[in-house]
Write a structure and sequence with these properties.
heterodimer; A: alpha+beta; Gyrase A, domain 2; 5-stranded antiparallel sheet; about 35% strand; B: mainly beta; Folate-binding fold; 4-stranded antiparallel sheet; binds zinc ion
Chain lengths: ~190, ~90
């Protein structure tokens, strides 16, 4: 667990576009439809899971993304978070939620690879192979979208203007990384 | 290509969805009392209408939730979208 092996380990710079793999960071998937779930998460992370579709909440430490009416994704902003702190967080969530039948807590740190895309050409790049309409997403900080890029499932999280984090499944990450670099030459 | 309004995520391209076939087919209450023909009818036989059809769809590349769609199969016009377990907002057209 948590070996953080990555097929990418790279950073690339193009005109108006920087792409970099941001790893290792902890990611935890949460599923619940119980009423106390929200307050429990609030107590542990000091952020509440967003109820509104396609949005996120967060503080300096963590982001909490809406994935579905009963599913969320936590990820850390801190690459330096110690393994002990990560284990503690996971245990705390697991004991408060999974163990008490309040939902499911799954560590997906090794499941997703996070790539940061930054620059004026971010949306030009994605639009080359993504059916999602970015008009609202672009202007709303914290927006979340699950969609497909080059036929690959991704989660997109709007961090700042023209700066977003893209999550891709590990086994698809190398393929998507190659596609991003290939496409970035033509924007 | 057409746009489907996911009841959870909003309007998205059709490529993010997957169709689960005809909706509102009820599983027989007493399967053991059915003849083979009746069971086959329940399992395999679908209306496949040219026109207004009630279908189940899944937002498979998004929120992964199931929901119902009333779609005209002849021109892909979507007349209504509603959640699982809800009554169809229109009976039939
Ligand atoms: Zn959806």
């Amino acid at each position: 667990m948590l070996s953080f092996n990555s097929p990418i380990n790279e950073e690339k710079k193009y005109n108006d576009l920087n792409i970099i793999e941001v790893e290792p960071i902890i990611k935890i998937n949460l599923r619940s439809n119980k009423r106390e779930f929200s307050t429990k998460i609030g107590k542990i992370l000091s952020i509440l899971p967003p109820n509104e579709a396609n949005t996120s909440s967060g503080n300096e430490k963590f982001n909490l993304l809406w994935l579905s009416p009963d599913e969320w994704l936590i990820y850390s902003n801190d690459k330096e978070m110690s393994l002990d702190d990560q284990t503690n967080l996971e245990d705390k969530l697991f004991n408060e939620i999974s163990k008490l039948n309040q939902g499911a807590v799954t560590n997906v740190s090794d499941h997703w690879v996070m790539i940061n895309l930054n620059g004026n050409k971010v949306y030009d790049l994605l639009s080359k192979s993504c059916p999602y309409n970015f008009n609202d997403f672009k202007n709303k900080k914290g927006s979340v979208a699950q969609t497909i890029v080059n036929h690959i499932n991704v989660i997109l999280h709007h961090k700042q203007e023209n700066n977003l984090n893209l999550f891709v499944r590990r086994s698809f990450s190398e393929d998507l990384w190659l596609w991003i670099n290939d496409s970035a030459r033509f924007i | 290509m057409f746009i489907i309004n996911c009841p959870y995520c909003g309007e998205r391209d059709q490529t993010e969805f997957s169709c689960g076939g005809e909706a509102h087919i009820e599983r027989p209450k007493q399967p053991t009392e059915l003849s083979d023909d009746q069971w086959a009818e329940y399992l395999f036989m679908r209306k496949n209408i040219k026109g207004i059809q009630f279908e189940r769809w899944n937002h498979i590349h998004g929120c992964r939730k199931w929901f119902n769609v009333i779609r005209d199969t002849s021109n892909d016009k979507i007349h209504a979208v509603y959640k699982m377990g809800e009554k169809p907002p229109i009976k039939s057209l």
